[in-house]
């Protein structure tokens, strides 16, 4: 038993050969699962009566409504569901709500110009390589491609036809370019506003570190998106978006319409354990405040940029009450920055083992939460954030001691 704990502590169990073997095994199992899902489907409806690409059906249906001049209807649950049913020729598919800002309808309309299957294929063929390229830009090593392709969150996202690849690619690009290309970083951040719940802490970091060029660039990008969507769809679409917020908050979030086991937030964990809505909001708010204080401290410190970037990526997931297991694709960005830091400065005890668990957890968290009520994804993200802060504090302590010795000498 002591030998096992020693291996976990040092990370010696995670050899390059084992990493490659685990990645190939996960890749083979995941690809077999996806092929089986397609092979057993009927006219792009799986055996459970759900569309292939589940959540993508709401993107495509919203695009169809937009092309027909009915963009505001995408925010009406009954009209949106009717459009989703129409996409699949009257099959009674489940409802997948449209909750995105109106400017994302421009993307949806572009996709709806194609048949559903082709649109889904293009959606994934563009977004997945963008995510993989963002990770490779952080850790430019040959083995990065395999580890990223086999990342379990990739297959969770593909199965849902979701947009987490775009989210992670934009966030990763923003962090990678922040110091070198602040204007372009701001543009990427502005584009990320299609998922506003993930931008709660980023403006705070930019303000705290005085990155005014990036702030202005991001603001201009968001303003341009708002103007363009208003000119294309009219002000009524913004009224519909605002009105839909009540449904999103009460049904999807507070009542757990999505499923508590799928949502990876502290809010969801409290509700899953029987806590009240007020208690869940209080817990989530306290966590958000703690994240805000610690992330500002970290970004204003002299800690390595890799630690700042990794912490911000994880904090973006932890701060919002509504984060799904497929959104954990963003963990790939955090893991990449932490791996880059560890490769140059060494890994502390248990860090490699925790990184391996963070890599694997998107495959496990939904089923474990559903069976036991244990929010493993949330626990691992909290542990990863704490590890990053601890590493930063440790590194800063080493630098301070070293500096004092130089002064004394």
From TrEMBL:
The lineage of its organism: Bacteria, Pseudomonadati, Pseudomonadota, Alphaproteobacteria, Hyphomicrobiales. It is a multi-pass membrane protein. Its main location: membrane. Pfam families: GT87. Keywords: Cell membrane, Membrane, Transferase, Transmembrane, Transmembrane helix. It comes from the Bacteria. The chain crosses the membrane at residues 21-39, 104-137, 149-177, 183-208, 215-241, 279-299, 311-339, 359-386. It comes from Afipia massiliensis. It is found in: Cell membrane. GO terms for cellular component: plasma membrane. One of its GO terms (molecular function) is hexosyltransferase activity. This is DUF2029 domain-containing protein. Belongs to the glycosyltransferase 87 family.
């Amino acid at each position: 038993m002591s030998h096992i704990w020693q291996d976990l502590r040092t990370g010696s169990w995670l050899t390059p050969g084992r990493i490659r073997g685990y990645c190939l095994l996960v890749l083979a199992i995941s690809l077999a699962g996806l092929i089986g899902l397609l092979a057993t489907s009927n006219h792009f409806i799986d055996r459970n009566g759900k569309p292939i690409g589940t959540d993508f059906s709401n993107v495509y249906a919203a695009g169809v409504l937009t092309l027909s001049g009915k963009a505001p209807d995408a925010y009406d649950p009954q009209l949106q569901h009717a459009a989703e049913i129409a996409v699949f020729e009257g099959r009674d598919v489940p409802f997948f709500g449209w909750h995105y800002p109106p400017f994302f309808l421009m993307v949806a309309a572009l996709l709806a110009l194609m048949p559903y299957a082709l649109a889904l294929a293009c959606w994934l063929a563009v977004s997945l390589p963008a995510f993989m390229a963002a990770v490779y830009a952080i850790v430019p090593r040959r083995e990065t491609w395999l580890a990223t392709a086999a990342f379990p969150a990739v297959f969770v996202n593909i199965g849902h036809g979701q947009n987490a690849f775009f989210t992670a690619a934009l966030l990763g690009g923003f962090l990678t370019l922040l110091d070198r290309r602040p204007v372009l970083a701001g543009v990427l951040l502005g584009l990320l506003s299609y998922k506003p719940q993930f931008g709660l802490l980023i403006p705070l970091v930019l303000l705290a570190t005085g990155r005014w060029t990036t702030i202005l660039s991001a603001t201009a990008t968001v303003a341009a998106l708002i103007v363009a969507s208003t000119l294309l769809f009219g002000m009524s679409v913004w009224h519909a978006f605002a009105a839909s917020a009540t449904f999103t908050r009460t049904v999807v979030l507070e009542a757990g319409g999505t499923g508590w086991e799928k949502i990876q937030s502290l809010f969801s964990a409290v509700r899953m354990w029987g806590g009240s809505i007020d208690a869940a909001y209080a817990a989530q708010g306290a966590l958000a405040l703690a994240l805000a204080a610690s992330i500002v401290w970290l970004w204003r410190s002299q800690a390595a940029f890799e630690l700042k970037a990794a912490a911000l990526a994880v904090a973006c997931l932890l701060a919002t009450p509504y984060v799904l297991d497929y959104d954990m694709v963003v963990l790939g960005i955090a893991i990449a920055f932490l791996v880059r830091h560890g490769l140059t400065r060494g890994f502390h005890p248990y860090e490699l083992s925790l990184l391996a668990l963070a890599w694997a957890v998107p495959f496990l968290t939904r089923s474990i939460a559903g069976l036991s009520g244990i929010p493993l994804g949330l626990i691992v993200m909290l542990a990863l954030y704490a590890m990053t802060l601890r590493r930063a504090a440790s590194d800063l302590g080493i630098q301070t001691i070293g500096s004092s010795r130089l002064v004394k000498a």
